[in-house]
């Protein structure tokens, strides 16, 4: 395997790095304190990301996206995540499952999302169905040419900014190995559709300014033309994208961890106690060595997994390994960064406390660490168990 990045990839990394430093990082502290991104700032970031050619970099070229391979996408994610999600979310990566759009959905949803004219949100999780996504209770019942949706969702990121939600609802049930299973359908539901209410969810300690919402459906009627993919095949449209998303989360974790290490190195060199830089004491320098080693391992695993995805040989378990390992490394590195900063690491005047708070969500969303371990173990044992 050739570990050398192409010249194009090197240039891309440099361009995103300077975009983050110039357009995003200067706003991070204020956004975190206000727990909000103003519409003007959101529009400004979106406009600059479009002008720089970063917007929708995850989407194929044939629909106007960046057309990048997964390895290049992971490199961009690594750089973007050196600032809070609250800001880099506006360098939008539309849900890849919108590639399942057909007929008028292409002009109504897919292309506007790629062009920065519309924003989507992904509405799967419910109060009673988190890790066990197949247990969702939201139902969509066919009535003539329409589906009528009833139920609720929570933890739906960015729904306050979204023009439409990709809503997962049960449309049927079937028997599988003697157990009743839900047939799930993905539906495109526009903001303002009668019967759908959106409400801000509880405050989250991670990524202040990046909010989750609750969605309520009360006889919400959408035409059957709003089915994304096929009726009853919601998991088919979602799964490929969710698995790739885990590798991108891993890349986000590597970027955040690297930022924590860079800050810690500088602090360890500058901060003096007992007449010397604290980095000269092994109690601190060995922490730095462990942090750097763990980050390097997480980065190698993540980039290798992205490369495998490009080769078409990545398995679900491998995506799970990258997400599991990188998010757990980030947790350890962020915690050690606080330790190296001492009391200042917990004060809201510096970025370390933010990185520490923001790191916590990464072991939970896009499948918890326990669920990743389950996926990995199932794949390892599958050939051996009968
Ligand atoms: C900030 C934020 C943003 C989010 N954004 C979105 C979004 O945009 N769209 C969306 O659809 N969802 C979103 N989510 C939901 C997210 O994907 C879920 O929170 C996650 O899948 C875990 O579900 P849960 O929180 O209900 O935890 P639970 O599933 O209730 O799990 C609780 C604990 O039990 C453990 N556990 C559960 N089952 C098992 C098992 N079989 N074996 C071992 N341990 C187990 C879990 O690992 C966890 O530690 C978001 C969540 C947050 C917090």
UniProtKB/TrEMBL annotation:
Residues 6-117 form the Acyl-CoA dehydrogenase/oxidase N-terminal domain. InterPro entries: Acyl-CoA_DH_CS, Acyl-CoA_Oxase/DH_mid-dom, Acyl-CoA_Oxase/DH_mid-dom_sf, AcylCo_DH-like_C, AcylCo_DH/oxidase_C, AcylCoA_DH/ox_N, AcylCoA_DH/ox_N_sf, AcylCoA_DH/oxidase_NM_dom_sf. Residues 121-220 form the Acyl-CoA oxidase/dehydrogenase middle domain. One of its GO terms (molecular function) is acyl-CoA dehydrogenase activity. Belongs to the acyl-CoA dehydrogenase family. This is Acyl-CoA dehydrogenase. Its EC number is 1.3.99.-. Its cofactor is FAD. Residues 232-381 form the Acyl-CoA dehydrogenase/oxidase C-terminal domain. It comes from the Bacteria. The gene is acdA.
């Amino acid at each position: 395997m050739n570990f050398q990045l192409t010249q194009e990839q090197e240039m891309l990394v440099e361009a995103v790095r300077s975009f983050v430093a110039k357009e995003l990082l200067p706003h991070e502290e204020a956004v975190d304190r206000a727990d909000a991104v103003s519409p003007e700032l959101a529009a400004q970031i979106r406009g600059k990301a479009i002008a720089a050619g970063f917007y929708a970099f995850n989407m194929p070229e044939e629909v106007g996206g960046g057309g990048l391979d997964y390895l290049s996408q992971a490199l961009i994610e690594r750089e973007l995540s050196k600032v809070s999600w609250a800001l880099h979310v506006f360098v939008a990566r539309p849900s890849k499952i919108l590639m399942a759009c057909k007929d008028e959905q292409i002009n109504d949803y897919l292309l506007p999302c790629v062009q920065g004219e519309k924003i989507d949100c992904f509405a799967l999780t419910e109060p009673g169905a988190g890790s066990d996504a197949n247990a969702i209770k939201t139902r969509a019942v066919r009535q003539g040419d329409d589906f009528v949706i009833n139920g609720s969702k929570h933890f739906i990121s960015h729904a306050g900014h979204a023009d439409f939600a990709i809503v997962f609802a049960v449309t049927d049930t079937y028997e599988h190995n003697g157990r009743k299973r839900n047939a799930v359908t993905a539906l495109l539901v526009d903001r303002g559709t009668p019967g759908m209410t959106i409400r801000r969810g509880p405050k989250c300690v991670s990524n202040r300014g990046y909010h989750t919402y609750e969605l309520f459906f009360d006889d919400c009627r959408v035409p059957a033309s709003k089915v994304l993919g096929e009726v009853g095949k919601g998991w088919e449209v979602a799964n490929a994208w969710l698995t790739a998303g885990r590798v991108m989360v891993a890349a986000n974790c590597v970027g955040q961890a690297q930022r924590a290490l860079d800050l810690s190195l500088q602090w360890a060199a500058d901060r003096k106690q007992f007449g010397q830089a604290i980095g000269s004491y092994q109690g601190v320098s060995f922490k730095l060595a462990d942090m750097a080693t763990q980050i390097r391992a997480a980065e190698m695993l993540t980039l290798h997994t992205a490369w495998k995805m490009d080769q078409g040989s990545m398995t679900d378990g491998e995506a799970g390994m990258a997400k599991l390992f990188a998010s757990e490394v980030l947790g350890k590195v962020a915690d050690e960064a606080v330790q190296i900063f001492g009391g200042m690491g917990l004060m809201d005047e510096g970025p370390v406390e933010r990185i520490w708070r923001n790191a916590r969500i990464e072991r939970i969303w896009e499948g918890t660490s326990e669920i990743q371990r389950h996926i990995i173990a199932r794949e390892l044992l599958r050939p051996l168990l009968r």
